């Protein structure tokens, strides 16, 4: 009886034979394709059939590239936006002084030589938060003594004056806005040159020009700029525009309401001008000068005895 393996374990041709057969078939196909060019249509059909599989296989890679490109583009745009905003605010002082320069050229045409304006050094600052007191108009910046800030320095944005540094800490500083009730700033009408002082109104975000006579040359729409006579604010910075003027013959003073030019409640980044207020000391009174001088004897009138005692003072009712 002949023994044979079961059908499940029957083996066909050997592996070596298979390799040789398939290698010969591959060489034959290469020869036919290079000579006859007959497999081009088959190759195109196969590529069309396999294209959806290729797209599905590349989908995860393309999705990863798209997400990475999105975040990179977003970060680049934010960085560019911050750079442009800082550049715009850093040039705010020169833009604001243009109007004052134009007014000076119109009123002082006979001036032959003018001193070149030296740009004031400035520090970029960002608002951290508003103060807790609801009855004041103050903000806190992220710059302080470590960055060269001092009390009294003006704060501006890209349009006009925002306020003044009132308290300084090592890393932060407090700024009182123009609209605070306790804040005042010397201003000048750019059109007529009239000088005055603008006072804050508090929560109403408005300014008042107080104690202005009804005959003052101030109209609705006039632009107010810093006069520079206080020695704190550089001249020519925009402060406010006149919103309403009420003049009555029965009143001694006009009621003038102004709207701040700067965004006192809208900005996030501000510019602090590093200008020191250097005012001359006030003159001493005459009495202090006399006391400070060394003692001098009063000269006696000629012909009289200098050592003679002074005449007694007359009492009320004796001079008759």
Describe the protein in words:
- With 320 residues, this protein is α+β, with helices and mostly antiparallel strands.
- The protein is built from 4 helices and 12 strands; from the N terminus they run αααββββββββββββα.
- The protein has helices spanning 15-36, 40-90, 92-107, 286-292; strands at residues 122-130, 138-141, 154-156, 161-168, 173-177, 184-189, 195-200, 207-213, 223-226, 238-246, 253-260, 269-273.
- The protein has a 6-stranded antiparallel beta barrel.
- The longest helix has 51 residues, at 40-90.
- It starts with 14 loop residues before the first helix and ends in a 28-residue tail after the last helix.
- The model is unreliable at 110-118 and 296-320 (pLDDT under 50).
Structure summarized in a few sentences:
With 320 residues, the chain is α+β, with helices and mostly antiparallel strands. The chain has 4 helices and 12 strands.
State the main characteristics.
320 residues, rod-shaped, disordered C terminus, alpha+beta, 4 helices
Across the major sheet, the strand order is 1-2-5-4-3-12
Helix and strand element order? HHHEEEEEEEEEEEEH
Residue stretches low in confidence (pLDDT < 50, at least 5 long) are 110-118, 296-320
In round numbers, the mean pLDDT is 78
Helix content: 25-40%
Q: Supply Rg.
A: 44 Å
End-to-end Cα distance: 181 Å
The gross shape turns out to be: rod-shaped
Task: Provide a count of the helices.
Answer: 4
User: Which structural category do the helix and sheet elements fall into?
Assistant: alpha+beta
Largest sheet, strands/sense/barrel: 6 strands, antiparallel, barrel
Quaternary state reads single chain
The percent range for strand residues is: 15-25%
Number of DSSP strand runs: 12
């Amino acid at each position: 009886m002949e023994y044979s393996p079961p059908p499940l374990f029957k083996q066909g041709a050997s592996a070596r034979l298979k390799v040789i057969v398939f290698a010969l078939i591959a060489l034959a196909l290469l020869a036919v394709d290079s000579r006859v060019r007959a497999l081009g249509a088959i190759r195109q059909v196969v590529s069309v059939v396999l294209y959806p599989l290729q797209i599905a296989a590349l989908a995860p890679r393309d999705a990863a590239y798209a997400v990475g490109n999105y975040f990179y583009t977003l970060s680049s745009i934010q960085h560019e936006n911050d750079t442009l905003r800082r550049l715009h605010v850093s040039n705010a002082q020169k833009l604001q002084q243009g109007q004052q320069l134009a007014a000076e050229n119109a009123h002082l045409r006979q001036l032959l030589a003018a001193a070149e304006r030296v740009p004031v050094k400035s520090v970029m600052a960002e608002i951290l938060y508003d103060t807790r007191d609801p009855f004041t108009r103050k903000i806190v910046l992220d710059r302080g003594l470590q960055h060269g800030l001092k009390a009294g320095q003006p704060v501006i944005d890209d349009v006009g004056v925002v306020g003044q540094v009132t308290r300084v800490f090592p890393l932060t500083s407090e700024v009182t806005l123009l609209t605070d009730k306790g804040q005042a700033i010397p201003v000048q009408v750019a059109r007529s040159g009239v000088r005055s002082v603008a006072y804050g109104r508090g929560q109403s975000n408005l300014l008042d020009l107080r104690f202005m006579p009804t005959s003052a040359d101030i109209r609705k729409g006039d632009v107010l700029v810093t006069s520079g006579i206080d020695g704190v604010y550089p001249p020519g910075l925009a402060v406010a525009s006149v919103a309403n003027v009420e003049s009555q013959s029965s009143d001694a003073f006009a009621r003038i309401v102004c709207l701040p030019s700067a965004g006192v409640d809208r900005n996030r980044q501000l510019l602090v001008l590093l200008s020191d207020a250097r005012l001359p000391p006030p003159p001493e009174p005459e009495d202090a000068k006399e006391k400070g001088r060394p003692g001098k004897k009063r000269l006696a009138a000629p012909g009289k005895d200098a050592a003679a005692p002074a005449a007694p003072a007359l009492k009320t009712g004796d001079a008759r």
